[in-house]
Amino acid sequence: MAADLPMSPQLEQIHGEIRDNFRALANGFQRLDKIKDSNRQSKQLEELTVKMRECKRLIKEFDRELKDEEGRNPPEVNKQLNDEKQSMIKELNSYVALRKTYMSTLGNKKVELFDMGAGVSEPTADDNFQVASAMSNQELVNAGMKTMDETDQTIERTKKVVEQTIEVGTETAVQLKGQTDQMGRIVNELDTINFSIKKASQLVKEIGRQVATDKCIMLFLLLIVCGVIAIIVVKIVNPNNKNIRDIPGLAPPAPTRRLLYLREAEYFN
Question: Coiled-coil region(s) at which residues (predicted)?
Fold first, then answer.
């Protein structure tokens, strides 16, 4: 049937390469049954995995070419080519499932995932190896609903994380604001203390100047008192000292009254 399909040279070449790889896969799995050594079986499975990856790539390329030529082909030809593509996808999926069986037999439970894309299935951890194009409408709806539920759950978790982040950010902002206000009050108090220190320094300087002035006045008064005391002492010790008489306030009073009395007596006589 595939040989009777009307294909362009590009599609025919890709289709031929895919079929060659399928034959190589079939022969490889047949030889795998004859291999008894587990190490050789693992190596053979690795080679078959490379072939399956190549088939995946070629099927994706076949699908791209098919879409490019879809407008130039009649509807019935497009249908036949799409059916052939689905047939190749199912055949590849059968080899993937067969590979999983051999891997389980070897005791390796890990199944490599194939990103088939563009109509090629992606093997999962369960036994269902189906592609979207091979699934029924109900299965597609169920798969879509499941994906939407998972997406909603992820969104809810993300919202919770965002809310927690916002709460932490708000608390941090409040703490920073409180610390900023506290720093502002500390700066104001430091300014007040600095102003008080400057004012106190000025007062100390003024008091120092006033004390110095008072000391000078007291010293001058002390000198005056000492001078007066010295004059009084000298007067007492030597009352006839002419130098003392010449000092205003300390010299004895002049005999003005006696002279006036003598003049009056002479006048009347």
Answer: 45-98
H/E element, 23: helix 9-34
Q: Quick check: is 267 in a domain?
A: no
If one counts every other C-beta atom within 10 angstroms of the C-beta of residue 102, the result is 17
Q: Enter the pTM of the model.
A: 0.40
- CA neighbor of 32 nearest in space, from 113, 102, 107: 102
Residue 39 inside a domain? The answer is: yes
Token couple for 33: 């049954």
**Cα 233–chain centre separation:** 95
The DSSP secondary-structure symbol of 159 reads: H
CA distance 62 to 57: 9
Q: Is 43 helix (H, G, I), strand (E, B) or coil?
A: helix
8 Å CB contact between 46 and 106: no
Q: How far is CA 14 from the centre of its chain?
A: 52
Query: Phi, psi at residue 252, to the nearest 5°?
Result: -70, 155
- Write out the residue range of the structural domain in which residue 118 sits: 2-135
Using the predicted structure, report yes or no on whether residue 255 has a pLDDT greater than 70. no
Q: Model confidence over 30-73: pLDDT tens digits?
A: 888 788 787 888 888 888 999 899 999 999 999 998 888 888 88
Residue 175 lies in a domain: no
